[in-house]
């Protein structure tokens, strides 16, 4: 990781509040300051669930790219490096965003946030929307971070399709302690008149 990227990540980690409420208000306010990049995206495949989100995301990307589509991908969490969360469309298959491009995007989003109470994931999701709105693609595959209903990715108002993978007990402090409560939170990505696939 470059020094510039490491410094941007370090500043980002200092933003995270000790406690936060589940709400889309913060991300919506930030995105408005950024010119609503989430409204400038190509069709979005929105993926939630407890198990298999990453595999479904990779499978969707592979199928779309094999069909000749240029695909942006947002996943969470990263495995080793922060930039793994963002794959930009490119001929012959996507490429991970570079450290310096990621650092610049984080700095721009953090500057727009102007010190307001916000989570790291909300900043990182705004970064995805900014990057994806500035680079051409045919499709975006976007993975939910936590739950669905109040996840920062759920500002997507008209996905091409919502995909819900298998649901089980996870993040009980935020989503509830019964599978039906957790399923209801994940079903929050379902939008009127948009197709839904349940895995």
UniProtKB/TrEMBL annotation:
Protein name per its UniProtKB record: Bifunctional folylpolyglutamate synthase/dihydrofolate synthase
Record GO biological process: tetrahydrofolate biosynthetic process
Keywords on record: ATP-binding, Ligase, Nucleotide-binding
GO cellular component: cytoplasm
PROSITE patterns noted in UniProt: FOLYLPOLYGLU_SYNT_2 (PS01012)
Molecular function (Gene Ontology), one example: ATP binding
Tagged with keyword ATP-binding: yes
Highest taxon listed in the record's lineage: Bacteria
Organism of this sequence: Brucella intermedia
Family classification: Belongs to the folylpolyglutamate synthase family.
